[in-house]
Write a structure and sequence with these properties.
Blueprint: H1 12-15, H2 18-27, H3 35-48, E1 52-58, E2 62-69, H4 73-78, E3 80-82, H5 88-94, E4 98-100, H6 113-117, E5 122-129, E6 135-143, H7 151-202, H8 207-218, E7 225-231, E8 237-244, H9 250-261, H10 264-277, E9 281-283, H11 291-294, H12 298-307, E10 311-319, E11 324-333, H13 342-379, E12 389-396, E13 407-413, E14 419-426, H14 431-448, H15 455-468, E15 475-485, E16 488-496, E17 502-504, E18 510-512, E19 532-536, E20 541-545, H16 557-568, H17 576-585, E21 594-601
Antiparallel strand pairs: 1-2, 1-6, 2-3, 4-5, 5-6, 7-8, 7-11, 9-10, 10-11, 12-21, 13-14, 14-15, 15-16, 16-19, 17-18, 17-20, 20-21
GO molecular function, one term: phosphatase activity
Pfam families: GAF (PF01590), SpoIIE (PF07228)
Keywords: Hydrolase
Length: about 600
């Protein structure tokens, strides 16, 4: 069959067919040699006795040459040529084999630059097709003089063309299988990511910390980099964090987060766009240069372009109550990673939903914690102003739970001039423990006020009262009576299962007042509890505290007290508020409440 009667048509629609181009991409045959197709080209050159034999693959804008024999060196090394020089593109347009004895007489081919640049005079090309019939390329031969192609040569080309097509189909099938495997792995990875994110978001009630971790987990697994932004109900942008999978970009992402936080208009505009879209907003071809016209500062666009801004996916962070959009998760890819698909879109939507739930929980927890802290502090007394005695107290709730608990402190002046000091801990750190704590503290005050009993009998009476009034309380406590005697102080104390008092002497040495342990209050009532006595010199500082200051799951109480001793030693003149701050700074993890009472004697 001759090409002379073929009508010239625009090859664009056929060449740019999305299904055909998808098959070409799956081949992965670019501007490089392929051993299998080079062998076929060599076989064709010898069997047909043609100076040039080619296996071509036609992309949208160029022709690749994975197999070739006989091309001049520049093209032989480049393994590609522009479509202007391609004779095979006419095979693609025709969808069938073309055999031309002299292209100079062909109305369509005669103006092709290949005639002059490559000396292509005679041409024969067989279409190479995929399983759906799309022409992906050709098996072609060229001669540098007019030639009548024989029937046996044409039949040989057709047969070898079928072999080439079978190889292409096999490679496409293998790539489709690999794609299915990658999609399955991606789906598994995304499910794993969602599980890890849920655990991360529920591990802390600090929403800024949670959203920062969210971005770090998403970057690299779902996108090259991402932006997480959160707005308050008032519309104020409350949080912006940026994360990139490459740690080398950490300075740039930190700078971008600061710039975005200082330019809330862009964040609000993105949130509004997502709201209007009623779901994720996806752009497969993002132009980084367009950012310069939309950003209030050019540095934002500059950093985004440097990080890679070829495609993006913006998903709403949606609060479950009222389905309000409270923030946005923006995933961004550079050119190398490719565009986002439906799987990533679904995962991003689910991440936004779970992040919105975490935001709602955090805000609810914050309101409850604030109420609880106000309640707790309202139940703790104001310390009296006593000449010669400086009192300083601190209370810190546990970082988990309801932010209230059973830890307490107290100090009050007796009619005889002595001072009662107490620190205790009712088991638990919740509302019930706080309510019980208030009752226990009031029982201590009511029972001890106006009486000159020593601390041991007072705690024994408190024990009897807890049982007699059927109060479900188990508590530790240290109760101390302090009297001025001459130039110093007579100090008596009783300890019901509580950490020992610690004294910082004027010379900077530290005493830990260990005594034989006695049971907690509220277990089995005791008729007698011990009273211990110490003489304390002016300039000393007494420390009463609860076990949250010295205990943790990974540490014994002895280790915690050794840590306190190290902080106290040599600091007898340190102001009491600074001393408190130093003691509390040694606690790295607050699994329990802390009550701390510091008494400086002058």
């Amino acid at each position: 069959m001759l090409r002379g009667d073929l009508v010239d048509k625009a090859v664009g629609p056929v060449l740019e067919d999305p299904a055909r181009l998808r098959a070409v991409r799956r081949l992965g045959l670019g501007a490089r040699a392929d051993v299998a197709f080079d062998r076929i080209a060599d076989l064709v050159e010898r069997l047909v006795d043609a100076p040039v034999a080619l296996v071509t693959v036609l992309a949208a804008d160029r022709q690749f040459l994975p197999g070739q024999v006989g091309l001049p060196e520049a093209l032989a090394s480049a393994r590609e040529m522009p479509l202007t020089h391609s004779l095979s593109r006419h095979v693609l347009e025709a969808g069938r084999m073309l055999v031309v004895e002299d292209v100079r007489t062909d109305p369509v081919m005669r103006d092709n630059p290949a005639v002059h640049d490559l000396g292509a005079i005679a041409f024969a090309g067989v279409p190479l097709t995929d399983s759906d019939g799309h022409v992906l390329g050709t098996l072609a031969v060229m001669d540098r003089e007019p030639r009548i192609w024989t029937r046996s040569e044409v039949a040989l080309l057709v047969e070898l063309g079928e072999i080439c097509s079978s190889e292409l189909r096999l490679r496409i099938a293998r790539e489709i299988a690999d794609e299915a495997r990658r999609h399955a792995e991606s789906a598994h990875d995304q499910l794993s990511l969602l599980g890890e994110l849920t655990e991360t978001l529920s591990a802390t009630m600090d929403i800024d910390e949670a959203l920062g971790r969210l971005g770090e987990m998403v970057a690299g697994r779902l996108a090259d980099w991402c932006v997480v932004a959160l707005a308050e109900p008032s519309g104020r942008v409350r949080h912006v964090s940026v994360a990139h999978f490459d740690p080398a970009h950490a300075p740039a992402t930190a700078r971008l987060a600061r710039l975005a936080a200082d330019a809330p208009r862009e964040i609000k505009a993105l949130m509004a766009a997502v709201q209007r879209a009623s779901g994720p907003l996806r752009r497969d071809e993002a132009d980084p240069k367009s950012l310069r016209t939309r950003m209030s500062t050019g540095e934002i666009a500059e950093i985004a372009e440097r990080l890679g801004f070829a495609s993006y996916l913006a998903a709403p962070i949606t609060a479950p109550v009222g389905r309000r959009t409270v923030g946005v998760l923006m995933l961004v890819n550079g050119a190398e990673r490719g565009v986002f698909g439906e799987a990533e879109e679904g995962t991003a939507t689910e991440i936004g939903r779970r992040a919105g739930l975490a935001v709602d929980n955090s805000r609810l927890y914050g309101r409850q914690r604030h109420v609880a802290e106000v309640l707790q502090h309202s139940m703790l007394p104001e310390l009296p102003d006593i000449p010669g005695i400086e009192l300083h107290a601190r209370y810190l709730p546990a970082q988990v739970g309801a932010a209230v608990g059973g830890d307490w402190y107290d100090a009050f002046l007796q009619p005889d001039g002595s001072v009662m000091l107490a620190v205790g801990d009712v088991s638990g750190h919740d509302i019930e423990a706080a309510a019980t704590m208030g009752q226990v503290r009031n029982l201590v005050r009511g029972d001890a006020y106006g009486r000159d009993d020593e601390p041991g009998p007072l705690l024994a009476q408190l024990d009897r009262a807890l049982h007699g009034l059927s109060m479900p309380a188990a508590a530790t406590a240290v109760l101390t009576r302090l009297r001025r005697v001459g130039d110093g102080y007579d100090l008596t104390f009783a300890n019901a299962g509580h950490p020992p008092p610690v004294l910082l002497r004027p010379d900077g040495e530290v005493e830990v007042w260990w005594e034989t342990p006695e049971p907690l209050l509220g277990l089995l009532p005791r008729d007698d509890r011990s009273t211990h006595r110490r003489y304390v010199r002016p300039g000393s500082t007494l420390l009463l505290y609860t076990d949250g200051l010295v205990e943790s799951p990974a540490q014994l109480i002895d280790d915690g007290i050794a840590r306190l001793r190290k902080v106290l030693e040599g600091n007898a003149t340190l102001p009491t508020d600074e001393l408190c701050a130093r003691l509390l700074s040694t606690v790295t993890r607050r699994d329990d409440d802390i009550a701390l009472l510091v008494i400086r004697l002058t």
